[in-house]
Amino acid sequence: MNSVGPVDVLVASLYDELRAIARREHFRAGAPQTLQPTALINEAYVKLRKREGWESRTHFLGCAATAIRHILIDAARARMTSKRDGQVFAFTERLDSLANAVPDDNEVVRLGAALKTLSTVDPNLALLVDCRFFAGLDEQETANVLGVSDRTVRRWWVQARAWIHHEMAA
Prior knowledge:
Elements: H1 6-13, H2 15-29, H3 37-49, H4 57-82, H5 105-121, H6 123-134, H7 139-146, H8 150-169
């Protein structure tokens, strides 16, 4: 017997928002794309279904953004095993305006490594990047997820971009 859990309810109620996130990330990832938006949502669902205790809608979306980031980085790693040439794009040039950029898989993997390191140094900054960059949440929505003011989000966003820029330039 298959029961409906809290994640099922959240995914159903937030499907349109999750689909918008997945479509944007699918477009941003460029071609060749191995994950269509629906597949990206399904993969995130599989990761999120294992967890319980969602505090709010924004908490769930923040976690979904992190799951989507992990999925995209894993997909980029997989594509890198089959190809080595590609366009180089620096994520750190303007982290907040990459929606129309087509990044290189190597850069996606490097960003993933930088965010993994950042999550050990300052988990709030890493979650902020997931919310702002991967989930596309605005300052207020990100502030709600993190439980801080929008002014703090702006200050942390500057810190996170500077830290990632430094990390990826090394």
